[in-house]
Amino acid sequence: IRGAVSREPNWQPLNRSICANPMPRSLPSSFPGPERPAAVGSSEERGGDHRFTTLVAEQIGWVVEIERHSFACPWTAIDFDEIIRDRSAVSLAMLLREEGIGYAVGYVDGADFHLANLAIAVSQRRQGWGRALLYEMLRTAREKGCRTCSLEVRESNSSGIELYRCCGFRQIGVQTGFYSRPRENALVMRAGIENF
Predict the structure, then answer these.
(1) pLDDT value at position 181?
(2) 148-154 and 184-192 as β-strands: parallel, antiparallel, unpaired?
(3) Which of 48, 101, 105, 130 has the CB geometry, 3.0–4.6 Å to 117, for a possible disulfide?
């Protein structure tokens, strides 16, 4: 699932793209989804099998591998290295039994957090990990003082759009021709994150 960055090389916060495949440590009581899963994501609830860390250089290898299997125009190791050095960037790695299964990248822009990239390993998709990672990223952004989160997602990415809507995001616009390879419009979405 991708949503907020055009997939061109070189980290440039205002024109990056995102990929998403999320699930949270804990759901806020005001979870806006159609149903509220019982034991969706805390490490304790899932037997302590997963955790989140700040993305570090030693993790870039597996991150790039997931990236390559997730996007037609993947970011490179150099792109991720630049991101983890950028003070405005927030980057998380998701580990399952100490194996990297996902990552998320975004940046703080005043009171807004821009989600730029989120991906889960192909073998771990459709298990709620994407939502957990998205929730953890939004919680982290809230702790950094952000009140809203914005992102872009391909118009054809129905699973990504549904995920974001389930997590409280609403469409606020369209960016024509935002994506390349293939060229496609992006839906611009935003959500309040005070409850994360």
Answers:
(1) 84
(2) antiparallel
(3) 105
CB atoms within 10 A of CB 73: 16
Q: Quick one: DSSP state of residue 29? A: T
Q: Identify whether the C-beta of residue 39 lies closer than 8 Å to the C-beta of residue 45.
A: yes
Residues 6+ apart with CB under 8 A from 165: none
Which SS3 state, helix, strand or coil, does residue 50 take?
strand
Residues near 162 by beta carbon (within 8 Å), at least 6 away in sequence:
none
Alpha carbon distance 44, 31 (integer Å): 20
Q: Which residue has the tokens 């616009």?
A: 173
The whole model's pTM is what?
0.76
DSSP secondary-structure letter at 26? Answer: S
Mean pLDDT across the chain, nearest whole number? 80
pLDDT of res. 159? 85
